């Protein structure tokens, strides 16, 4: 009897203690922790299984289904893997076929995308890494202004009425890398093929978060265009106000002859040979009041041969180089350091009806074909050998040559500079000085043009 009474008293004290501490009767701390652990483990297991086993088939179904239907092209994907803890997605052998046939339109060897958990905090996509390995694009020109992608760029339905501006869509993408890319261009109209190989692109980040707007982005683009190296570097603030960009462009002996046929307006000339090289710096500021574009550096043309439609020579030269101190085309400012021609040959013919072999270039229609009928003709050709140099005139070296005086000197066949160094075959690949801070005249003012040196050899 005493044992039963003691047991009841102990049980009463337990109930009273549970009531004071807020702990439900019959549920101890170890049991609560065990229950919370089971729930957390279940959530973790569901998250892991969903990320590893559900995301890849869902993504594959989306790519081969709705995406393929919107592109009107078959889409195939190799292996897809997703790590839900690192938010890392890997896609192998992604391929988009042609609309007709079994050829490849776009192919990517490997795609790697790593997102960040900060996306939840910012409620916006934050991507830490994007890697694209071995992308290949196959372009085909089937007719004038018709390509194998023309259906994708066709204009859609008329836009709806303008909506009030909304908040910008925030995003951040870092470490964008493209390696070993290739573009194959097959021109069925002209029967030509062009190839852009070894494409490498790197962008540190692109973001429009307020904290990243005023930070410079330094992109890199390298490629080989039909055997000619191409390199573009610089820095930019793409989302700043005003937007700023500084770009360094280097091209080495790009063959111009194959690209003359792609000019939108047909020109009545032929160019059997000619190459272009440059080492330029471009600065662009998109200020709301007055946008500004400034150029500095050097550009060169080599082995240029321009002929008319009858294959008669018009203009040719072995080397032409122009060095820019500061050029602002929007403000009509052109400060040139040097212009040089080597082995310039210009052929001018005046026909009996008053037309010339340059009439077609001026928009006056095609020039008549050459005939044995008598015609008043004249030929002006610059000497192939270097002109004599006058190096004893310090005044000429100290003061720039006005443009009109330089033109007169060229037409007279006399040297307009104090020195004529041997012209290099390509533009120097050294660093380019930034454009000088020269005050720009207003758009309606007098053009500001100067030329320090004109050389004709």
Account of the protein in words:
The chain is 18% helix and 39% strand. It contains five helices and 18 strands. It has helices at 2-21, 29-71, 118-122, 394-398, 403-412; strands at 75-76, 80-83, 88-97, 104-115, 126-143, 146-147, 172-187, 192-207, 220-225, 228-237, 243-255, 269-286, 292-308, 313-328, 333-342, 345-346, 448-451, 454-456. The chain has an 18-stranded mixed beta sheet that branches. A hairpin with a 4-residue loop joins strand 7 (172-187) and strand 8 (192-207). The longest helix is centred in the N-terminal third of the chain and has 43 residues, at 29-71.
Write the layout of secondary structure elements.
Elements: H1 2-21, H2 29-71, E1 75-76, E2 80-83, E3 88-97, E4 104-115, H3 118-122, E5 126-143, E6 146-147, E7 172-187, E8 192-207, E9 220-225, E10 228-237, E11 243-255, E12 269-286, E13 292-308, E14 313-328, E15 333-342, E16 345-346, H4 394-398, H5 403-412, E17 448-451, E18 454-456
Parallel strand pairs: 5-7, 15-17, 15-18
Antiparallel strand pairs: 1-3, 2-3, 3-4, 4-5, 5-6, 7-8, 8-9, 9-10, 10-11, 11-12, 12-13, 13-14, 14-15, 14-16
